Amino acid sequence: MSGAVSDVRDVLGIDATAIEPRQPPLKKQRTVEKRPDGITRELYALLGENAPPVAVVEHRFKDKPKFLGTVAAWKEQKFNNPARKDDLELSHWVRQNPGQSAEEEEEEKQQMDYQFARFNIKINVLEYSDAEYDAVLKDDDWSRQETDYLFRLIQEYDLRWVVIADRFEFEGKDRTMEDLKARYYSVCRNVMEMRTPVSMMSTEEAALYNAMHYNKEQEVERKRIVHMQLYRTPAEVEHEQHLIAELRRIHDSHSQLLEEREELFNRLDYPQSTGSIAAYQGSQGLATLAQNILNSDRNKKRKSVAAAPGQAAEKEESKPAAPTAASPTVSRQGSIAEPARAHAHQRTESTASASGTTPLKDKNKSNIKQLSKAEEAQYNLSHHDKLQPGVFFRTMKMNLPKANSFLNKSPAIMAELNIPQILSMPTSRTCAKYELLAKEIAALMDIRKQLEKVEQETKIFKAQEAMGENRTKRSASVLSDASRSSKRPKKEK
Amino acid sequence: MASTPQMSQVLPSTTKPAELEYGGDEISALVLDPGTNTTRCGFAGEDTPKTCVPTYYGIIPDPEEQKFLGKLKIGENAIHSVVDGMEIRNPMHDGIVENWEVTTEIWRHCIEYRLSSRVEEHPLLVTEPIWNPLKKREKTTEIVFEDFNVPAYFLVKSAVCESFANSKPSALVVDVGHAYTSVTPVLDGIPLKKGSERTPLGGQHLNNQLRHQFTELGIRMAPWLMIKTKSTYTDLTNPAPLRTRDYGFEPHQSHLELQQDRFIHEYKECISETWPEPKSFPADLNNVPENFRGLPDKAYEFPDGYQRRFGLDRCLAPESLFNPSVAPKPWTGETPKGIAEMIKDSIDHIDADIRANMLSNIVVVGGTSLLYRFNERLNQELTAMFPGPRVKIYSPGQIAERKYSAWLGGSILASCGAFHQLWISKQEYDEIGANIIERRAK
Ligand SMILES: Nc1ncnc2c1ncn2[C@@H]1O[C@H](COP(=O)(O)OP(=O)(O)O)[C@@H](O)[C@H]1O
Fold first, then answer.
1. Which residues of chain B lie closer than 8 angstroms to A233, CB-CB?
2. What is the pLDDT of residue A51?
3. Buried/exposed A120-155: b ≥16 CB within 10 Å, e otherwise
4. What pLDDT digit, counting tens, does each position of A302-316 carry?
5. CB neighbours of A305 closer than 8 A, spacing ≥ 6?
């Protein structure tokens, strides 16, 4: 910095000595007046100098942190481990309780067992006496010494068979783990059986006795398979993974199918929806289900309310007409909902007939919501006497006149009236109207027929009358008239 | 090892262990892990050894001097200083102590000089390889009680320590050390003898291979200690003049080799690399196929100033760990098995039911496993060998943990409350003698 300054001076041609180095400005001395005793600092600040209160910073190190209470002393203490057989004394550091005298400590130490001694756990391995060995445990392959050695190892390694087989070395004998296990379990079984005959064993003993059964061949075979499994070739592993993926896919789609089926059954059979669907998975089950629904419908009919059939047509109509494409679904949903309604209805009725004989039933009744007519219309509910199973077109079920003459002539009349012959929206209400229309058309046809007949007769009578007056002159015209009138129905035919 | 404490439940690292669950109880024990390259020593309960002393020692043969026929030089400073007539030797062979007098001195040096502790005040835990014969174990016991006069002592297999250090009660421990590579299955803290394998493929093997490789190339192997001034050059046919220090005597050949090992070690750390794929390393490096995807070069400067770029040839020595037949220096005896082959052998020797468990718990430790991409290669070898079961390698990420795993495991054991019932006390030794080790620590 000073170098830079002298450079600038050189450039400007100023002699360095000509300028006195600037004195650093003296630090302003701040005089702190001593505040008289008895006046608080805040009050004092309002009076006098009006200098803001300044925190006095002392230049010294931070205070030592103040700990609560005294620091506990730690003491190196010797301890004995009861898990040891000798009396080795090791020492560890323990926290001293302040205010505890040395004698108390000593006492406490005596009472407290070494806390880790409880991890010294030994398993109970069966022991056999000489007599027992001689009685049931003799084996051509296994000497007494070897059996003893095996049991020692088992005790030592806590039945860890892998380790036991690893460490087993007896007179150069080559024993596999299966050999060792077979021997151990047979010894255990024999001794147990000898001490308490199987029939006298308690359930626990019997369970243990049965669990001790060891099938050596099976075990050897299993190990062989495990070994094979370890050394699969990459191709085999890939194939296996492929198969597993396939299996999972099948399983997934199967459960999806089941789910869908269950959902369908839930809709079909409201009261039984909580039950298992297993019964309905076969075609036979499905048939039973259909039969059940049919029966309940029949029951309902027997007790039916008089109003039911008439209402049905009206109620369903109140819903605004859905677009044409959606109409089949709408109608199907309606018909699916209907049995449920029928069930509910039936239940209400039966409870009504039993009229409060049991409080429980009463309660049931109140649970079922009674819908007003407007609400029923809103929810598009309808009541039916009987539903045919299966899917059908509503138009097929329409009650139209069957007469041939009607079938032949109605299209012409419909055309005349400017009504399309096929219902574009066969909701139950339009169907009902259509039925009405058809009936009226039939009536119209009848009336027209009658009219024609009457007209014909009057014409004949008139003609006869005229003939009486002017027989020769007019006969031709009457005939032509008659032929004309008789021609009309012919044309219609 | 009969009732080694059960440690089968491993706590997640985020939860604080309960007082008893943590199970620690410090009794200020010492842990000593004698390796071929270095001897590690420190206090139980700490996470790294306090001191790490070279196991190599210097000796000035002198029949007059009574102590082991010469004057001993122990410790880093002593063995790396140039002393007339000093030979460098190693008291261990194949991971097993051969020269007890020197080993005792080294241990004493570790504890009394480096740790400034008094041997007779602390229980002592020593690690040993699984193939340590009974005689040596008895000898260790004798020295520890007679010479050191320790209050309590125990011998643990280093493989067990290594699996504990990686918080696994059961694991297949692969220790790639200096003198050997060993594979040991450990089940619930008990090593399985029948499944354990070892080969001389380790750090020392790599040193020899590299020394051979460099000599073949015509590189002057003068170590740092011998160089007075260096001038760099890149042309081997026209080398810069070698200006060596004049000590007034010729250092012993073994000393030179130890010094060479120092820069070879550096080379291993920064230049050597394991070829990551099994079986694809080109057999002939002078004749690499056209389309072979190689490696970027890395440059290294030897102590005498020679600078060289190494390409694929820096994979050659590490490759010989997996595929010993490519070793630059021909094998004198039988060609040993590669490391992956050895693991397969070990797996074949253990019970079929625990094989899958072992394969999914492979613990890889030891200094040489720090070779770049070593674990990647091992993983590829093993997955190719066992396509079916899950193969999972656990290897500490920290360099210190990798090198000192055995010590760390010993430190955990010796500070564990439930372990204190296992110590062999002086009293027991006095009653039964050195054979107590066979009864108590199997
Ligand atoms: N980063 C590294 N890269 C390659 N080799 C290493 C590395 N660090 C250490 N080594 C080698 O590891 C060996 C020491 O391993 P270590 O496990 O300590 O052996 P031991 O237990 O037998 O003494 C030495 O040969 C050393 O050169």
1. 387
2. 59
3. beeeeeeebeeeebeebbeeeebeeebbebbbebbb
4. 655 444 444 444 444
5. A349
Q: How far is CA B74 from CA B86, B249, B323, in A?
A: 12, 21, 36
Q: Where are the alpha helices (DSSP H) in B70-222?
A: 76-80, 100-108, 134-142, 158-165, 203-217
Which chain B residues touch A230 with a CB distance below 8 Å?
Answer: 347, 352, 355-356, 386, 388-389
Question: Binning pLDDT at 50, 70 and 90, where does residue B56 land?
Answer: very high
In a domain, A261, yes or no: no
Residues A136 and A115 in one domain: no
- Percent of chain B past pLDDT 90, that is, above it, reads 65
Q: Which residues of B touch A162 (CB under 8 A)?
A: 187, 192, 350-351, 353-354
- Please, is B17 exposed, middle or buried when counting C-beta atoms within 10 Å of its C-beta (0-12, 13-18, 19+)? exposed
Please give the angle made by the CA atoms of B41, B46 and B52, to the nearest 5 degrees. Answer: 25
User: What's the mean pLDDT in A459-488?
Assistant: 63
| Residue A29, pLDDT score | 58
Among B268, B272, B300, B373, say which to mutate for ligand 1: greatest number of ligand atoms within 8 Å of CB: B268
Query: Within the 172-231 window of chain B, which residues sit less than 8 Å (CB to CB) from chain A?
Result: 187-188, 190, 192-195
B415 to chain A: closest CA residue? A92
Reported pTM: 0.66
| Domain encompassing residue A214 | 130-230
The residue to which tokens 């029923």 are assigned: A376
Who among A91, A115, A163 is closest to B187 (CB)? A163
> pLDDT confidence of A327, banded at 50, 70, 90?
very low
- Give the residue on B whose Cα is nearest the Cα of A235: B387
Closest atom of ligand 1 to B261 CA is 27
CATH of domain B203-326: 3.90.640.10
pLDDT score for A291: 85
Q: What is the CATH number of domain B30-158+405-440?
A: 3.30.420.40
Minimal C-alpha gap between A228 and chain B (Å) = 10
Number of folded domains that form chain A? 3
Q: Is A162 on the interface with B (CB under 8 A)?
A: yes
